[in-house]
Amino acid sequence: MTDSIERFQREATQRERLSSLGRLSTVVAHEIRNPLMIIKSALRTLRRENVQPDQVRAVAHDIDEEIARLNRIVAEVLDFARPIKFDLAPANLNALARDAVRAADAGVAHAKVKLDLDTTIPDVTTDAERLRLALVNIVGNAIQAVDSRETPADGDPIRLRTAKITSRRVAITVTDKGMGIAPEDLPRVFDPFFTTRRTGTGIGLAISRNIIEGLGGRITVSSERNRGTEVRIELPMQPPATA
Fold first, then answer.
1. 138 and 200 inside one domain
2. Rounded distance between C-alpha atoms, residue 125 and residue 92, angstroms
3. Which of 88, 89, 158, 212 has CA atoms 20 to 30 A from the CA of 178?
4. Are 173 and 140 within 8 A, CB to CB?
C-alpha cells in the first residue's frame, strides 16, 4: 500500500511538472525579453558617432551582465525541466546541514543561523549534493527574509533543526523571523519564477521541491506576515527507488 501511494505521488508530481512547464513558457518569454531589450539598447549606444571609451566600457559591462543573466535563466529552466538523475549513497544528514548553512551564509555580514541537530539520526541514503543544493536555497531565502526586516528580530533569527520522526523518516526544518509571506503569495511559492524580491529569479524553491520529492520526500511552507516562515522537509531514510 505504501509503495503504491508513493508511486502515485511520484506520477502526480511528474504530471504537475509537465503542466508547470506549459505555464512556464509565458514567464520565460518575459524573463528573456527584458535582457534582450537591454542588450538592444546598449548596441544602439555603440552605433552612435563619437562614442567615448568610458561609454564603450559601460555598455560592454551591461551586455556582459545581461548575457550572464540569460545563461542563468536557461540553466535554471533546464534544471527544472529535465528529470533529475540522483546519485544515492549513505550520508550524514547533520554534516550535510552544517555544510549547507556555511555555503548559504558565506559572505553575509548579519547572518545568524542556529543549528539544532539530532545526534541520534543514523546515516541516510540520499543524493548529498542535490539535497545540499535544496538546503542552500532554503537557508539562503531565510537569510534574505531576515535581512529585509527593518527591525531586527530578537534571539536567533534563523534556526535549522534535524529530527528523527520514525525509524524510516527524518525531518529538516528551517524557521526564520523574517517578514513572512503574504497569504495571497503563499500558494505560489513553489511556482517557477514566482518571486517577491527584485533581485530574485524565483526558481530556487521550485528546484528544491523537485529534488525533495524526487528523493521520496515532501516539502511544505507555512508563514505568518511579520512573524516569519517555516519550511519543513520530510525524507525517507531509504528513497523508494532503492527500497
1. yes
2. 9
3. 212
4. no
User: Please, what are the averages of pLDDT over each run of 10 residues along the chain (243 residues)?
Assistant: 64 63 63 84 88 90 88 73 84 95 71 88 95 92 79 75 95 93 85 62 80 93 91 93 49
Q: Using CA atoms, how far apart are residues 159 and 104, in angstroms rounded to an integer? A: 13
Rounded distance between C-alpha atoms, residue 124 and residue 109, angstroms: 33
Q: Are residues 69 and 93 part of one domain?
A: no
CA angle 80, 24, 41 (to 5 degrees): 105
Q: How far apart are CA 181 and CA 229, in angstroms?
A: 7
pLDDT at position 243, please? Answer: 44
Nearest to 32 by CA among 71, 3, 62: 71
Q: Angle 93-104/128-147 helices, nearest 10 degrees?
A: 40
